[in-house]
Amino acid sequence: MAIFRRLFQGLLFSGKNGGAAGGGQQRDRYWRMWRNTVLAVSAVSLIPLVFMTAVNYYQFQRALKVEMAHPIERVAAAAKHSLESFLEERIGLLRYISEREALDRLSDSAELEAIHKRMKNTFGGFVDLGLIDAEGIQRSYSGPYGLLGKRYGDYAWFNEVYLRGIHVSDVFLGHRQIPHFVIAVKREGEGGQYHVLRATVDTEVLSQRLRSVGLKKGVDVFIVNREGVLQTPSRLFGGVLAKTAVNVPVNVGETEIMEDYPLKGETYLVGYAYISQSPFVFVVLAKTADLMKGWFTIRTEFLGFLGASMVVTVMLIMTITSAWVRRIREADLRREATQHSAEHANKMALIGRLAAGVAHEINNPLAIINEKAGLLADIVNATGGIRNPEKMLKQLDSIENSVKRCSGITHRLLGFAKHMDLRSEPIALDALMREVLGFLEKEAAFRKINVNLDVPEVLPTLVSDRGQLQQLFLNIINNAFDAMNNGGRLDITIRRADGGSVAVVIRDDGCGIPKQDLDRIFEPFFTKKAHGTGLGLSISYGIVQKLGGQIRVESEVGKGTAFTITLPVAAR
Q1: Are residue 428 and residue 511 in the same domain, yes or no?
Q2: Handedness of CA 443, 445, 449, 453 (dihedral sign)
Q3: pLDDT(15) > 70
Q4: What average pLDDT score do residues 280-290 get?
């Protein structure tokens, strides 16, 4: 959150107005407004986006898993059909031979061998063939092993054939030590007698059937019995008769698919299919990670889209909120400036009313003094009996000049109460500045203040009010003198400015003005000086405004203050 606060301050409090309207409390208020708005709008915008993306993510993942399960299910169904057809074909063949061939012929080993040979040539996979009587004794045999006369009466499969009429065994090694399985069918005879025709089938024919399924590389297919023992080799679990880690489900229908099946630290998609009339279960294993490779790409795109959308949304919200808070701040600045101007105008109006009353009270006695002085001058001129009339008239002239001077002062004081017309005249600004400095020459010499005036060789002539400019510069230079210690330095620079204006920069090396007071120095009666009235800069501000110019101040405590007054060349 600290990073966002620095970003917010960089967005909102940079630029020329960065320090305005901006105490710590106001900054905190704007920060809370920005933060709460960004959080609220982001929540309203991003929560539905995240929710919809999560829903789409889940639905697409489920749909993809279903699509992945379909090929596995089709393979399991196809393998089930193929293996069942294979077994039904062999079982049907044995039943056909058992029913169609005469018992005497089947009991003859030579005849049985001829039948066995035709079976191998036509169908393949039959290792041997034998006829077993009701006592469980093998009466005839065709095959590579000497099993003639072998007794099977105590074997469980023999009883199963007696009860069900058919038996398909698990794969086993037996005397041959070669994986094979047995198919046996029952033949009913006269008088309740029966015989069993038994054939041994090589498991290689099952493996060939599985290899013809045609699956992608990395997919493992094999056959197990109900206990999970391999009936055909497995790429994952090894050779025939090895125990697998696959748990064969009970009561499987046509096919069954299990997702995310854990095996050897990974997950697999497992398909099962029970082969009817046999103990065999077809199993297909496909690694989930291999099947989900396409999904990983899609997932990356999903998450990338979500992340990019969230970043763009948040950045857009932050930008819009910053603009909105900035406009609120600018409105606050304008309101504060308007309020400040209104307060300043109200104070100036109050001063004007006070000045008008004072000027009126002074002007009345001054008018009487002026009239009486004129009357005395007339009496002196009309009467010849007065000694030294020239001296008397000279004293009366001094009184009249003093009255005029006081009248001029009160006349300017009335400027606070009503608008006074400016008396514009051509003014050489450098000469005017030297006149003002002449009034302060003795104080500067006494205090050893070094005053430097920098004026360009060519300077335009101003058309303005001489008396107003004299008062303006005198007030500011007086303030500079008050701020400086003895032996200080005052630099006055006059230069051309943009827009047909002239700029006057008055820079001192005095004590400077605190930052918190800069916005108030032009207010009436605001002063930090023990003997000041707080009217000098206020009057100067009013003069600059009347002349159509601008005044700007820069100050640093302990280093000094610079006033920049920009005045139009032509009168306004």
Answers
A1: yes
A2: positive
A3: no
A4: 87
